[in-house]
Design goal:
Blueprint lengths: L3 E8 L3 H9 L7 E5 L4 E8 L2 E8 L2 H5 L1 H4 L6 E7 L3 H10 L10 E3 L2 E6 L9 E5 L1
Parallel strand pairs: 1-4, 5-8
Antiparallel strand pairs: 1-5, 2-3, 3-4, 6-7, 7-8
C-alpha cells in the first residue's frame, strides 16, 4: 500500500532559522512554496528518499482552524506516505475503519493529497500523496 515515507511535516516558529539549522546538519533546502490560501510557507529539505517539510504559518488563524492545521504536543504535524493509487488506498483505509477528513483528496504542494482523522489512526495525522 505505502511506497515510502514521502515526508514528515514539522511546524516551525521561524522558517529561515529552521532552514539554516538543518543546512548546518548537511541538508539543503531545495524548494520553498508559498501556500497563501492555506496561510503557510513550506520549505522542503531532502534526506535520502524522503523530505523534511517545514511548515511556517503566515496566518496564525489558519493554524488553529481545522484538523490538519492543529498541532498538539510538539512540532511534528504529520507523516506523509507516497502511494501509487490514491483511490484504492482510501478504499482500503476505510475498510479498516480509518476515516478520510472531509474535503480530501485535493491538490497539495506536490500532487494529490488526502488526510485521515487522527482518532482513527492511533492519534497520528496521516497524509497520503500521489505524486
Amino acid at each position: 500500500m505505502f511506497k515510502k515515507i514521502r515526508h514528515i511535516g514539522i511546524v516551525v516558529e521561524d522558517l529561515e532559522r529552521a532552514i539554516d539549522k538543518f543546512e548546518g546538519f548537511g541538508l539543503r533546502c531545495n524548494e520553498v512554496k508559498d501556500m497563501n490560501e492555506l496561510g503557510m510557507r513550506i520549505a522542503f529539505m531532502p534526506s535520502g528518499d524522503s523530505l523534511l517539510e517545514f511548515i511556517y504559518y503566515t496566518d496564525i488563524n489558519k493554524k488553529q482552524s481545522g484538523i490538519v492545521g492543529r498541532q498538539k504536543g510538539g512540532p511534528i504535524n504529520h507523516i506523509c506516505f507516497e502511494v501509487d493509487d490514491m483511490e484504492s488506498t482510501i478504499q482500503d483505509f476505510e475498510k479498516k475503519g480509518v476515516k478520510l477528513i472531509e474535503g480530501f483528496p485535493k491538490k497539495g504542494a506536490h500532487g494529490r493529497v488526502a488526510f485521515f482523522y487522527p482518532e482513527t489512526t492511533e492519534g497520528i495525522l496521516i497524509e497520503i500523496c500521489q505524486v
